[in-house]
Write the structure tokens for this entry.
Amino acid sequence: MQGRDLPEQLTAFLARHEREFTGFRRDLHMHPELAFAEHRTTGRIAERLREVGLRPRVLAQGTGLVCDIGSGPGPWSRSGPTSTPSRSPTRRRGFPTARRSRARARLRARRAHHVLLASAVFLAQQDRVGALPGRVRLIFQPAEELPGGAVEVVNDGAMKGVDRIFALHCDPRLMVGKVGLRVGGITAACDQLMVRLSGPGGHTARPHLTSDLVYAMGKVVTELPAALSRLVDPRAGFSLVWGRISAGAAPNVIPDDAVAEGTVRCLDDEAGTPPRTSSRGWSSRWPPPTGRRRGHLPPRCPADDQ
């Protein structure tokens, strides 16, 4: 692949295939699939790769795939073909890309597997004319938004022989046509967190006879991130952000159960695993969230997770 000729070749290739790849992305957008259920997406990608003479291999668990192009050593690329649950409206009338599956969630706009597919077609073309100096393995990882997808890729042997890997991720802050690079981590490792509180409920006219879990959960979701910020080096990029809070079903009833779910993200592996005893230490210093007795913390919290 001649370096000086590559930009012109790539520009010409994209111009010839622009309508095809735009249609491919829109088709996937209309049929989003959740983690480990990306069967249609996997099938569409595999079909297109076979059309250009490649031999993709679907992962053992049934979704996601890997595909080698060329021979000899070379870099590797990874992308994720998963959607995430959302109640956001995406079935807009008149929109050609509106999703057509009522049981599925909206498609995350940052998915990059259609870009990886375009790369595969271009690299296959380069390989056929002997212009690809080495080997490239494309990894379409399933369950990109949930723990387990990367583990399945590793367990399936997709990383054997890999010495370098490039992960693709969309960032809406960058203008179209620009690529962002940096030394070190560019996206954080992510764990999921759920906190559940339970206690005596009752009527809002008599909160003093209850544990008032709505008030207690309010304390947890605001003070837990602040407490963690005093346990972790600020340079580690550690953050706890809540995505769902649920408690009660009526305005005049104090519930007996409350749940909060979120994500814990960190750029430093060591900073993400403080001493296991730390959660008990700082929790004992918290003031009681209600006028009755102190509620118990959940058995697992981000400082304990690995």
Remarks:
- The mean pLDDT is 79.
- The helical segments are 6-30, 39-51, 113-128, 149-155, 213-229, 278-283.
